[in-house]
Specification:
Blueprint: H1 8-25, H2 28-49, H3 61-64, H4 71-75, H5 90-95, H6 102-118, H7 129-132, H8 144-168, H9 179-194, H10 206-223, H11 226-252, H12 258-272, H13 295-299
Main location: endoplasmic reticulum
GO cellular component, one term: endoplasmic reticulum membrane
Transmembrane segments: 100-120, 141-161, 167-190, 202-222, 228-250
């Protein structure tokens, strides 16, 4: 005897359930395909951006030398990535990252000490430095107005040094055609041009800053009185702080009007359109006499 056929109501429920399941599952396949295509397109875009040589998600320094003659053009095409890995080693990677607020924390106390010494407000005679150098206990000090004049000269000196370093050191490859030359340039400045949206490697690491400051400081002390050398160094360091913090603000701040808006436009043109112009960052002062103003700055100063 044949089994009884299901009741019409039961059949309706079964059919509705089957249709509901099918209707719910149907969009899953297109969604999965779309996600797969997006992932594939993203990988292709990264491959294209790296010219098929550089993995944009991998450590940059070991890879950039592979670009060879293509490096210079590649590094001046800014990426939209907001972060990147610089080194393969975790320790190097950690010390390559510097928050903007570290700059005043490190340098303001040094500027203060140099200024106080130049004005005769510090007593070095009881310090270990007095055992190393009798010059450290010199009684010669500066009055306030001479100090301010030398201090302001240091600020002006920094602005010129900022322009020269940016134009004649940061924008050349010291050892062209070599892997070391490419890697050195990328670490020094190329990384900033390739990834201008990154926040962690925009200001100069204090240890590198100390290494660059030391030769100038020694030359000053060998060629002029200690109090003058200290006042000049203090002014130059304040100019440096202004440069580093202004540079950070131009990239990540939102000036709406006035001087900083014009300065931001000037600097963004340097990054995105005219990398051979616009070398002044904290100001456009030296771009005027050296004729390196960007087009918009030349018409709107």
């Amino acid at each position: 005897m044949a089994p009884p056929s299901p009741a019409p109501a039961a059949m309706g429920r079964t059919g509705a359930a089957r249709m509901t399941t099918t209707a719910t599952a149907a969009p899953a396949a297109p969604a999965a395909r779309a996600a797969e295509m997006a992932n594939r397109d993203g990988k292709k875009a990264q491959l294209d951006e790296g010219l098929g040589v550089v993995d944009m998600k991998g450590p940059m320094v070991p890879q950039v030398a592979k670009l060879g003659d293509k490096y210079w053009e590649w590094v001046h095409k800014p990426s939209a990535q907001r972060s990147y890995r610089l080194f393969a080693g975790d320790l190097y990677e950690f010390f390559s990252w510097t928050p903007w607020w570290v700059i005043p924390i490190v340098w303001v106390p040094i500027i203060t000490a140099l200024s106080m010494d130049a004005l005769g407000r510090l007593d070095w005679s009881m310090s270990p430095l007095a055992l190393v150098s009798p010059a450290m206990v010199s009684t010669q000090v500066l009055a306030l107005w001479p100090f301010l004049g030398i201090f302001l000269t240091g600020i002006l000196m920094w602005s010129f040094l900022e322009y020269c370093l940016h134009r004649f050191l940061f924008h050349i490859i010291l050892f062209p055609g070599t892997a070391f030359g490419i890697q050195f340039h990328f670490i020094l400045h190329g990384q900033h041009h390739k990834f201008p949206l990154d926040r962690g490697r925009l200001v100069f690491p204090p240890m590198a800053g100390l290494m660059m400051t030391a030769p100038f400081y020694l030359v000053f002390h060998l060629t002029m009185a200690r109090e003058v050398a200290n006042a000049l160094t203090a002014g130059a360091l304040l100019g440096y702080i202004a440069y580093d913090l202004t540079h950070y603000y131009l990239h990540h701040g939102r000036p709406s009007t006035g001087y900083f808006q014009r300065l931001k436009r000037h600097h963004m043109q340097h990054h995105y359109r005219h990398s051979t112009l616009g070398f002044g960052i904290s100001s456009k002062l030296w771009d005027f006499p050296f004729a390196t103003l960007t087009p918009s700055s030349a018409t709107r100063t």
